[in-house]
């Protein structure tokens, strides 16, 4: 801890003898009173000392050549830092009232007359030295108090920040706990239905109609499970930036119209007044992901609108953007929830949501997909019971130049297919489905047998699982592409891996298409057909 500086006394006198006498006299008490004595012979020298030091008191001779005591005092007190230094004038003659008034006007606090009486000098000096010490102590206490106050303020800010972070973490943990509980509920329901339906099929005496109904239940609930897994995976990929968009010009109005038709065809919009006004507008984007956005927005409106409610879907262009609006007259959104409707793990009314099913992560996915397309999404509501509106904005592009229609499939039959899949149940089921659709199918259980089958069977198209024993699907594709006799075969990858880097690796290995399991039969048929229509990429 630094030792505090001693108070200083400045003696200013042009007479060397008088200066020596005063400094020597003051030096007698310097150690006892803990002060330091400095001296100056002129007013200018006194000003230099004042610039360098703080003084408890200045003993200033009135009669000096050049700058006299009054001018020196005025100059000292003209400076802000030294304006409050007490000055005691020393004079050899008795000052009249006008001189005293002049001295006080220039900042004097007292007079001493020569010859100076030591006891009087000591009494006066002691007062100012003690006062300077007290002032320094008060300044020190003020600095310590200020430092302590700053520390307390910083500690208080840290404490408030920690409390806020803890509250946010608690809210997030609570939301995640609710989400996991909700996920368990959503998974158990279809699994229970599938288990019961499968058990029913195996019961003796079950009717043909009962078997068919059980099969429909298994199919429907399996699709529901697939959508749950897709939502979870898509959200994870979107949040980590691992969704790779397959960009192409898309007419958003036509895409939304197709989405609405799907809702009507599947009966998901039954019981609602589903209106639309769709004006054409082209954007550059991934048609599958854009349809996912539109589907989630419409599904969200259906979910939070009671049966019989009205849902309006519109598209239009403005200010270089294509806009999609989904408006409903449903339950609305509370003001405190409105800023958080796109956050992960945030939901509104759980009662309606649970009755409709779902995980409540669709809007989070919508926002991320909109951002990946260079657009944005906003929500608005007047409050509970007042409905809500969601507005998507995407950058507009010029309509593409029409291309010639692709050549139709040959009329002399369907392509021969090879399925390379190591999962026995999956291989059997897909082979049976493809056979039902009239395809000639050969199956192999691993990569090496698949290559042998290619040489024997000469397929037009191969469906290849990536995670194969022996050599994986990537190696199968590379070997087929490297062989001039097999490089013409169209290749479709079947995989449970759907990240952006997985797609890039699949395409780099030589595949024409990438399908993520589980694959619906309609999606598979469309992919096979579109793949066969395209020219070979050599």
**Percent range for β-strand residues:** 15-25%
Q: Number of DSSP helices?
A: 15
Low-confidence runs of at least 5 consecutive residues: 349-359, 403-412
Sheet bearing the most strands, described? 5 strands, parallel
Kindly state the number of beta strands. Answer: 17
Share of residues in helices: 40-55%
Rg calc: 45 Å
Through-space gap between termini = 81 Å
Global shape: elongated
Structural class: alpha/beta
**Overall mean confidence score, pLDDT:** 82
Strand ordering within the main sheet: 2-1-3-4-5
Write the layout of secondary structure elements.
Elements lengths: L7 E5 L3 H18 L2 E5 L2 H10 L4 E5 L7 H9 L9 E5 L5 H9 L2 E6 L4 H84 L6 H32 L8 E4 H14 L7 E6 L3 E4 L1 H17 L6 E9 L2 E8 L21 H7 L5 H11 L3 E5 L7 E8 L21 E4 L3 H13 L4 E4 L2 H11 L3 E5 L7 H10 L7 E6 L4 H10 L3 E4 L4 H13 L5
Parallel strand pairs: 1-2, 1-3, 3-4, 4-5, 7-9, 13-14, 13-15, 15-16, 16-17
Antiparallel strand pairs: 6-8, 9-10, 10-12, 11-12
Helix pairs in contact: 1-5, 2-3, 5-6, 6-10, 7-8, 8-10, 12-13
In short:
The chain is 50% helix and 17% strand.
Describe the protein's architecture and organization.
It is a single chain. It contains 15 helices and 17 strands. It has helices at 16-33, 43-52, 69-77, 97-105, 118-201, 208-239, 252-265, 287-303, 350-356, 362-372, 424-436, 447-457, 473-482, 500-509, 521-533; strands at residues 8-12, 36-40, 57-61, 87-91, 108-113, 248-251, 273-278, 282-285, 310-318, 321-328, 376-380, 388-395, 417-420, 441-444, 461-465, 490-495, 513-516.
């Amino acid at each position: 801890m630094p030792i505090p500086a001693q108070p200083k006394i400045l003696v200013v006198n042009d007479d060397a003898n008088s200066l020596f006498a005063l400094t020597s006299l003051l030096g007698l008490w310097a150690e006892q009173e803990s002060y330091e004595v400095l001296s100056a012979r002129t007013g200018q020298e006194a000003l230099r000392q004042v610039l360098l030091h703080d003084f408890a008191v200045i003993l200033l001779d009135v009669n000096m050549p050049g700058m006299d005591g009054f001018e020196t005092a005025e100059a000292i007190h003209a400076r802000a830092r030294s304006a409050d230094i007490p000055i005691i004038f020393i004079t050899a003659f008795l000052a009249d009232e006008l001189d005293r008034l002049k001295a006080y006007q220039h900042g004097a606090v007292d007079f001493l007359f020569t010859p100076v009486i030591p006891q009087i000098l000591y009494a006066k000096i002691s007062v100012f030295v003690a006062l300077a010490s007290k002032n320094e102590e008060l300044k020190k206490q003020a600095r310590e108090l200020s430092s302590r106050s700053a520390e307390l303020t910083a500690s208080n800010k840290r404490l408030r920040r920690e409390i806020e972070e803890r509250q946010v973490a608690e809210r997030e943990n609570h939301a995640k706990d609710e989400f996991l509980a909700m996920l368990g509920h959503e998974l158990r329901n279809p699994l229970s239905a599938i288990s019961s339906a499968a058990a029913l099929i195996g019961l003796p005496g079950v009717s043909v109609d009962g078997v068919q109904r059980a099969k429909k239940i298994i199919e429907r609930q399996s699709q529901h499970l697939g959508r749950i897994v897709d939502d979870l995976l898509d959200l994870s990929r979107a949040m980590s930036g691992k969704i790779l968009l397959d960009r192409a010009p898309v007419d958003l109005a036509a895409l939304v119209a197709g989405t609405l038709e799907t809702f009507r065809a599947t009966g998901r919009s039954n019981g609602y007044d589903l209106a639309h006004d769709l004006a054409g507008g082209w954007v550059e984007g991934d048609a599958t992901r854009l349809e996912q956005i539109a589907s989630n927005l419409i599904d969200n409106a259906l979910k939070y609108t009671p049966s019989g409610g009205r849902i309006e879907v519109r598209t239009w262009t403005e200010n270089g953007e294509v806009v999609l609006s989904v408006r409903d007259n449903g339950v609305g959104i509370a003001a405190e929830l409105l800023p958080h409707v796109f956050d992960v793990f945030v939901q509104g009314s759980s009662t309606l949501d649970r009755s409709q099913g779902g995980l409540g992560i669709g809007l989070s996915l919508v926002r991320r997909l909109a951002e990946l397309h260079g657009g944005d999404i906003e929500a608005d509501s007047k409050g509970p019971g007042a409905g809500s509106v969601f507005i998507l904005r995407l950058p507009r592009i010029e309509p593409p130049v029409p291309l010639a229609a692709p050549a139709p499939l040959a009329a002399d039959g369907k392509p021969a297919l090879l399925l390379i899949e190591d999962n026995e149940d999956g291989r059997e089921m897909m082979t049976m489905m493809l056979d039902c659709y009239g395809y000639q199918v050969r199956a192999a259980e691993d990569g090496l047998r698949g290559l042998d089958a290619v040489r024997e069977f000469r397929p037009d198209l191969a469906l290849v699982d990536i995670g194969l024993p022996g050599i994986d699907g990537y190696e199968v594709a590379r070997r087929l592409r490297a062989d001039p006799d097999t490089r013409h075969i169209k290749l479709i990858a079947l995989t449970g891996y759907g990240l952006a880097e997985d797609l890039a690796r699949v395409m780099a290995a030589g595949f024409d298409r990438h399908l993520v399991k589980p694959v619906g039969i309609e999606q598979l048929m469309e992919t096979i057909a579109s793949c066969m229509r395209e020219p070979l990429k050599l």
